[in-house]
Amino acid sequence: MKRLMLATLSVLILTACGNKVSPSSERNLVTKIEMNTTEISSVEVNKVNGVAQLIIADQISEQASTYCKANEIIYINTKINKVERNPSKDVAYKLTPTNNRLSMCLAKDNSYLSYRYGNGDTVTLENKATTELPFSRYYQQIGRMGKDILFFSNGTYYYYVGISGGMGRGISIDVYKGDELISELFSGNTIGEDFFLAPNLILPSALFSEKKPPHKKMQ
């Protein structure tokens, strides 16, 4: 399994909010914190006066791994954080890192796109999009945030991979069993550290069928 070294994690914390700000005070709206990734293990987003604020602590690994192989192109490689909604009063959501990882790998001959989810060196779930058995694809637009959603089913389970664009950033994974959302996961927002998305890579259209997701949240 390939390994990609990580450097530092950049976190944006909103420290003020308002419709109008002077140039001199504008820099106070956002504080950028640089810290080594060995110091981080959990992220909380708090609501303070209606403004989301990040809280980060503890430790995660310095290394990112990919399940892609030598004959494949890395399309997505991402850390996996569990999303917990409203874990306590005034906390909008909490991200807790795991040892899991998702790699989506495109064959160099464009014959397949592989979804590989695993823990450490072990792939625990793999599925392939081919011309005979394509993944489904849907573009979701909510305000200024757009999300390209790739999804497939495995028995009664549905797996959605969301690639955020526009005002959004990051990779999400939503897993349903029947109509029930059983797992909500997110990469984090920092490109190159929380997740990798191949720039300017055009996926073969033959590997997808344009289809509206059966779950309303994904539509």
Task: Give a structural overview.
The protein has about 220 residues and is mostly beta strands. It contains one helix and 17 strands. The chain has one helix at about 25; strands spanning about 1-5, 10-15, 30-35, 40-50, 50-55, 65, 70-90, 90-105, 115-120, 120-130, 135-140, 145-155, 155-165, 170-175, 180-185, 195, 210. Strands 4, 5, 7, 8, 9, 10, 11, 12, 13, 14, 15, 16 and 17 form a 13-stranded mixed β-sheet that branches. A two-stranded antiparallel ribbon has the order 1-6. A two-stranded antiparallel ribbon has the order 2-3. Strand 13 (about 155-165) and strand 14 form a beta hairpin. The two termini are about 35 Å apart.
In N-to-C order, the SSE pattern is EEHEEEEEEEEEEEEEEE
* Radius of gyration over C-alpha positions, nearest whole angstrom: 18 Å
Form type: globular
Poorly predicted runs are 5-49, 51-63
The number of helical elements comes to 1
- Largest sheet, described in full? 13 strands, mixed
What number is the mean pLDDT? Answer: 78
Question: What is the number of E strands?
Answer: 17
Strand content: over 45%
Ends: how far apart? 35 Å
Q: From the helix content, strand content and strand pairing, which structural class follows?
A: mainly beta
Oligomer: single chain
Approximate helicity band: under 10%
